[in-house]
Write a structure and sequence with these properties.
Layout: H1 2-15, E1 22-23, H2 52-65, H3 72-80, H4 107-121, H5 126-137, H6 156-168, H7 179-183, H8 214-223, H9 257-272, E2 276-278, E3 286-288, H10 289-302, H11 305-318, H12 329-341, H13 354-359, E4 403-404
Parallel strand pairs: 1-4
Antiparallel strand pairs: 2-3
Helix pairs in contact: 2-4, 2-12, 4-5, 4-6, 6-8, 8-9, 8-10, 9-10, 10-11, 10-12
Biased composition (Gly residues): 428-443
Signal peptide: 1-20
Keywords: Membrane, Signal, Transmembrane, Transmembrane helix
Length: 443
C-alpha cells in the first residue's frame, strides 16, 4: 500500500506543476522519452502516462462547448482507451491489448471520459453506460470515490468529478446516497476556525481533522451541484455568496453545501487579490491558475456572477504566467470553459485566442457547429464594460480538474491522488489531480 501511495504521489507530481484539476492539468507534463511515439489523435506533446485521458477529455469538452466539432480521430482515440469492464486508465499505450489485473483503473480518467463522450456521442452511448456502471461498482463504503479503484478511502476531488460524470450521463444526483451527500464528509462546518467554514479538505488528516484546500473546495462546489467541468452559467445572478446557517450538528445542509463552498472561495479570492493558492511542502504558497479557473466555473455555475468576475479578470491578466499553458490541452481547455462559464470570449481573452491555442495542441477540429454566443474579452472596466465597451453579463456555470485534474491536483500526501485530486500540503494536478494545499499548474 505504501508503494502504491508513493507511486500515486509521484504520478501527481510528474503530471502537474500544480493545478487541480486537478483534477486537471494546467502545466505540460514532461516530454516523452525519444522512443515514445504519441498517437496521432492525442492532444498534447507531453508524456501521456499520467494524464492522457484527462487532457483529451478536457480538450474535447472545451471544443464542443464552443460549437466546434472535434476531429473524429481525437474522439476515436479517447473511446479506444476504454477497458472491456467500462473503466479507463490514465493512458494505455496499446489500446488493443486487453486490460488485466495490473491495469490501474482510474476513477478520475473514467469520469472525465464520461463527461466528454456524453457530450459528443450522447448520454445513452454504450461507452458512457459501461463507464458509469463501472464507476458505480467501485464506489467506496463511505459513499465517495477514491482516485484508484480499490483504495479504501475516498477523496473530495475524485468524488466531485464522478458527480459531474453521473450528471452528464443523466443519472439522478439527488438524495441521501448521492455523490453530493458523500462530499459533506469533507466540508468544514460552522465550528471551523475563523475564515475556514465552508471549505473542503481533499482528504482528512491522519487525526481526522479537515484542512481547507482551495482546489478541493472549487471541485466540491461543482460536485455538490452535481455539475461537471463544462457546466454552463446559472440563469440568475444570486449576488455575492454568503455562509448559510448550519444544522444542529454544526454542518451545512446538503442543499446549502455548494453555497457555503462558494462563500469560502469568494472570500479567499478576494483576500488574495483574485486567485487561489497552492503550496508544495516546504515551499511558499503561489497562485494556482488551474484552481482559480475551476473556482470561476463553480461560482458562475452557482449564480455568483459578481464573485466570478474578480478571478476571471485576474486570469485575463496573468494566464501568460500559467506554467506550460500553451502546451497543455487540459489547462487551455479548462481556461476556455472558465471564460465561457463567466460570459467572456475564449477567442479574445486577455489578448489571447484560447481556442486556437488549444486546437494547435492536437488534430485540427471540424468547425461545423455555430459558435455559441459569448461576450468580448471577459474583463470589466470601472464602468461595468469590457475593454471594447461591451457590457459583460456575468452568469455562473460550472468544471478534475481536475481535475484533474484538470485542470484537478496530484496528492503528495500519504494518501495519494491523481490528476484531479489535491491533498493538503501537496501539489495538485491537471488534467487531473493532485495534492497539497491546492495544486497549481500542472493540469
Amino acid at each position: 500500500m505504501l508503494l502504491r501511495r508513493c507511486a500515486t504521489a509521484l504520478a501527481a507530481a510528474t503530471v502537474l506543476s500544480a493545478s487541480a484539476a486537478p483534477a486537471a492539468l494546467a502545466d505540460a507534463s514532461p516530454s516523452p522519452s525519444p522512443e515514445v511515439t504519441l498517437p496521432a489523435g492525442l492532444y498534447g506533446a507531453g508524456d501521456p502516462q499520467y494524464d492522457a485521458v484527462w487532457r483529451q477529455s478536457t480538450a474535447l469538452l472545451a471544443q464542443d462547448a464552443l460549437g466546434v466539432t472535434p476531429a473524429e480521430s481525437a474522439v476515436a482515440w479517447l473511446a479506444d482507451q476504454q477497458c472491456d469492464d467500462g473503466s479507463f486508465s490514465s493512458y494505455r499505450a496499446d489500446p488493443q491489448a486487453p486490460c488485466d489485473a495490473q491495469t490501474p483503473r482510474d476513477t478520475n480518467a473514467t469520469a472525465m471520459a464520461v463527461q466528454a463522450l456524453a457530450a459528443l456521442r450522447g448520454a445513452d452511448a454504450d461507452a458512457v453506460g459501461d463507464a458509469v456502471a463501472w464507476l458505480e461498482s467501485v464506489r467506496g463504503e463511505d459513499g465517495g470515490w477514491a482516485y484508484y479503484a480499490g483504495d479504501p478511502a475516498s477523496d473530495a476531488n475524485s468524488t466531485a468529478v464522478v458527480a459531474g460524470a453521473l450528471n452528464a450521463a443523466g443519472r439522478d444526483g439527488s438524495g441521501a446516497d448521492s455523490p453530493a451527500a458523500a462530499l459533506s464528509a469533507f466540508q468544514l462546518g460552522c465550528d471551523a476556525p475563523d475564515g475556514q467554514a465552508g471549505a473542503f479538505a481533499h482528504v482528512p488528516e491522519e487525526n481526522g481533522d479537515l484542512k481547507p484546500n482551495g482546489l478541493a473546495t472549487a471541485s466540491a462546489a461543482l460536485g455538490a451541484q452535481g455539475l461537471g467541468l463544462a457546466a454552463e452559467a446559472a440563469g440568475e445572478d444570486a449576488g455575492r455568496p454568503t455562509l448559510p446557517e448550519c444544522d444542529e450538528d454544526g454542518r451545512f445542509p446538503a442543499e446549502r453545501s455548494a453555497q457555503a463552498a462558494a462563500a469560502y472561495l469568494s472570500a479567499e479570492l478576494e483576500r488574495n487579490g483574485g486567485y487561489l493558492e497552492f503550496a508544495m511542502p516546504g515551499a511558499e504558497p503561489q497562485p494556482d491558475h488551474s484552481g482559480t479557473a475551476l473556482a470561476v466555473i463553480a461560482l458562475a455555475a452557482g449564480g455568483y456572477a459578481d464573485a466570478a468576475q474578480e478571478p476571471l479578470n485576474w486570469l485575463a491578466d496573468h494566464h501568460d504566467q500559467w506554467q506550460g499553458l500553451n502546451e497543455s490541452p487540459a489547462g487551455l481547455g479548462q481556461l476556455v470553459l472558465a471564460v465561457r462559464a463567466a460570459g467572456g470570449d475564449p477567442r479574445a481573452f486577455g489578448g489571447t485566442d484560447l481556442l486556437d491555442r488549444l486546437s494547435a495542441t492536437g488534430p485540427e477540429p471540424q468547425p461545423s457547429k455555430e459558435p455559441k454566443g459569448v461576450a468580448s474579452d471577459g474583463r470589466e472596466d470601472a464602468d461595468g464594460e469590457d475593454g471594447n465597451g461591451t457590457a459583460v453579463w456575468w452568469v455562473v456555470g460550472s468544471i478534475f480538474v481536475a481535475g484533474v485534474g484538470v485542470g484537478l491536483l496530484v496528492s503528495l500526501r500519504k494518501r495519494g491522488t491523481g490528476p484531479n485530486g489535491s491533498a493538503d500540503g501537496s501539489a495538485n494536478g491537471s488534467g487531473g489531480s493532485s495534492g497539497g494545499s491546492s495544486g497549481g499548474d500542472a493540469r
